[in-house]
Design brief:
Strand content: 5-15%
Structural class: alpha+beta
Bound molecules: uridine-5'-diphosphate, magnesium ion
Distance between the termini: 23 Å
Order of helices and strands: HHEEEHHEHHEHHHEHH
Number of helices: 11
Radius of gyration: 22 Å
Strand order of the largest sheet: 4-5-3-6
Number of strands: 6
Shape: globular
Length: 218
């Protein structure tokens, strides 16, 4: 953002020093490098610099559990991921089958809380989404999407989750912790394949992608 402001400011200065009396309003959109990373405006010899940083990108699966849906927290939780810079590529609401849940939580089958976890997760609809994080945020935060979303979601036990995390702000007991987030890139891949058909995941371009992500078309 700072670089973008500098770029706009530099362009305004050059415009006025060159004696151009054109309408300054028209300069602002021109200064935004829409798809113009490294583009040189020959008439005014102004170089636009890409503000994006290339990097690795990942997908992760986030689910708003039945208590989150019942408590009408869907909008607030989704807003946090949008605000952070995640790109939504898949979204659905469903009543989860026991079969899907047993596959999703296969690692926890021997845990004492497993039966009540299945009851909880099948007690009502869940909203499940696949998100993607632009490389700018990855580099900026030093985290990958899976790690970043786990940090945003907070500790499994809301009593230990920090304020500001989803669980730290919206829940107080481990048995009703509102949201699920994949815990590793491999786990995310497995869960995404379990919850979504590949045709349900959309490939689309954010209108701001040239600002937030250099290789967003990949
Ligand atoms: N859970 C529970 N009691 C526990 C631990 C976990 O009810 O003592 C539930 C809780 O809903 C948690 C889910 O089981 O989110 C999966 O547990 P996991 O250890 O994978 O935690 P998560 O990855 O969700 O943070
Ligand atoms: Mg887990």
């Amino acid at each position: 953002m700072l670089l973008l402001q500098r770029s706009v400011f530099k362009r305004l200065l050059q415009h006025f020093y060159s004696g151009n009396q054109g309408n300054a309003k028209s300069l602002v959109p021109a200064a935004l490098p829409a798809g113009a990373a490294g583009h040189r405006n020959k008439s005014r010899r102004i170089t636009f610099h890409s503000i994006a940083v290339p990097g690795e990108r990942e997908r992760t699966l986030i689910a708003i559990k039945p208590d989150g849906v019942q408590r009408r927290l869907v909008g607030q939780i989704m807003q946090r991921f949008e605000q952070r810079g995640f790109k939504l590529v898949g979204l659905k609401m469903l009543q989860v089958s026991e079969d899907l849940l047993s596959q999703h939580y296969c690692d926890l089958r021997t845990k004492p809380f497993y039966p009540s976890l299945l009851d909880y997760m099948s007690s009502g609809p869940v909203v499940v989404m696949v998100t993607f994080l632009s490389s700018l945020i990855l580099v900026w935060e030093g985290h990958k999407v899976v790690q970043t979303s786990r940090t945003m979601v907070g500790h499994t036990n809301p009593a230990e989750a920090q304020a500001g995390t989803v669980r730290g702000d919206f829940s107080f007991h481990v048995s009703r912790n509102v949201v699920h987030a994949s815990d590793s890139p491999e786990g995310a891949q497995r869960e995404i394949q379990l919850w979504f058909h590949s045709k349900e995941l959309l490939k689309w371009e954010c209108c701001d992608q040239t600002i937030t992500c250099e290789d967003a078309k990949a």
